[in-house]
Amino acid sequence: MTASFSELNLAPSLAKAVAQMGYETMTPIQAQAIPVVLQGRDVMGAAQTGTGKTAAFSLPLLQRLLKHENASMSPARHPVRALVLLPTRELANQVADQIRQYAEFTNLRSAVVFGGMDIKPQIIELRKGVEVLVATPGRLLDHIEGKSAVLNQVEYVVLDEADRMLDIGFLPDLQRILSHLPKKRTTLLFSATFSNDIKKLAGSYLQDPVTIEVARSNSAAANVEQRFYSASGEDKRHALVALLKQHNVTQAFVFVNSKLGCARLAKALERDGLRTTAMHGDKSQDERLKALEAFKSGEVDLLVCTDVAARGLDIKDVPAVFNIDLPYNAEDYIHRIGRTGRAGASGLAISFVSNSDARLLSDIEKLINIKAEVETVDTGPRPGADFVTERPPKRLNDGHRLQQRREDGKEKRADSQDPKGRYQPPPRQMSKDPLFDQPYQAKADSTPAAWEAAEPARGRGLSANIKPKRKVAALFQMVVE
Ligand code: AMP
């Protein structure tokens, strides 16, 4: 059943904004949540980003705030009446952008505040008065303490991506923020899952909520082709480069589990000549926004990111997602592959499976009810340590990118399957570099090492009081996973 926005009797200013955005029919979460929020009820919604949930809470919330709409310049006439809390800066920015568009033809003001940015411009904006404040918890607390955010007239609070906020450890911050809000208010909580912790949070802060669940967007899997390849350690990067070519991928999200791994992989890919940017929690806000913009504008082809940084980002038409590491939490697999194949487009999700991933893979198989066939990647010849024979083009392939996937690289690895066709972990990969495997031997000739030749002779460059350092030779061995 598809319901139209026209059935909602939205105020003309809001209906005009919806029409301007080109929406006619409501998504399932919108059709279910908007009428309930319009009645002023609390909502506990199970929905992920990508389902249209921002409009599901913003439109009815704005409609209910229209009674306060005024064109006065006085800040006192524009107190914060709705608070939207999100776990990350990018999500806060994205949701604030949407709210700004829905409120474009009203006199309701909105603002967004998050950490990692200069607080002063945020203070100036808040002091002018805003009705809808979108925020991440830490920075909001700074504003509460500095009295630039006064929340005693809040009527609506939205806890968006609540499960992720708890994962990040925002519970104490949320509790402090909620303690500053009036008891009489409407509370809307959205979460991808209803874990026990989420239920506890809802039990403490929601009053008689209406529970709304929309089908988990693992339906995204229907138009996303999922493939699994066996690769470990450094080989994952080689495999990624090979598969980008094999599948004619033009742009991709590349997911890595750790911040350090993310930064390292992005650097290595850049060294390989691929136009890459990284996005993880250790990047400054400015760097993260720039990375996102560069990816959106097509200036870079690969966005290497961690889950926290990429959660919920709505970037249309990303042809492929790579999971360099399988996520620790199978739910995150759904989030990750949901980055591709958005709005009905077809997408490709490639995951690398290493020796130790059997449990993570089986969690994913159970959650989305698939049986993964693990294939091998032909990474081509690799002279010495240099894994790419030919430097890849600066820009990934254009044109017919997704159609040919099925025909290419189809070969299954016979030794990776047991007789029942189940995945068997590949043998542990060891270093194959003969020089590296050899024990260290001092040079037979007397040629000085490079650093010795460069060292100034005693009595010339060095003070007589400084003893020359003892030279030490060390051999570092990198353990391949
Ligand atoms: P969200 O889950 O709120 O992040 O929304 C995901 C995407 O769907 C955003 O790009 C929205 O602009 C878009 N969207 C929201 N509601 C609708 C709708 N009723 N019809 C089409 N697209 C929508």
Task: Give an overview of the whole structure.
Residues 383-394 and 397-468 have low confidence and may be disordered. The chain contains 18 helices and 14 strands. Helix 15 packs across helix 16 (358-368). It folds into two domains: 5-213, P-loop containing nucleotide triphosphate hydrolases (Rossmann fold), CATH 3.40.50.300; 224-387, Rossmann fold (3-Layer(aba) Sandwich). The chain is an alpha/beta fold and 481 residues long. 34% of the residues lie in helices and 13% in strands. Strands 3-4-2-5-6-1-7 form a seven-stranded parallel β-sheet, sandwiched between helices. A seven-stranded parallel β-sheet has the order 10-11-9-12-13-8-14, with helices on both faces. The chain binds adenosine monophosphate.
Quickly list its features:
Rossmann fold, globular, binds adenosine monophosphate, single chain, alpha/beta, 34% helix
Describe what is shown at a glance.
Helix content is 34%, strand content 13%.
Could you give the topology of this structure?
Layout: H1 12-20, H2 28-38, E1 43-46, H3 53-65, E2 82-85, H4 89-102, E3 110-113, H5 119-128, E4 132-135, H6 137-145, E5 156-159, H7 162-168, H8 171-179, E6 186-191, H9 196-205, E7 210-213, H10 220-223, E8 224-230, H11 235-246, E9 252-255, H12 259-271, E10 276-279, H13 285-296, E11 302-305, H14 307-310, E12 320-323, H15 330-337, E13 347-353, H16 358-368, E14 374-375, H17 434-437, H18 450-454
Parallel strand pairs: 1-6, 1-7, 2-4, 2-5, 3-4, 5-6, 8-13, 8-14, 9-11, 9-12, 10-11, 12-13
Helix pairs in contact: 2-3, 3-4, 6-8, 15-16
Bound molecules: adenosine monophosphate.
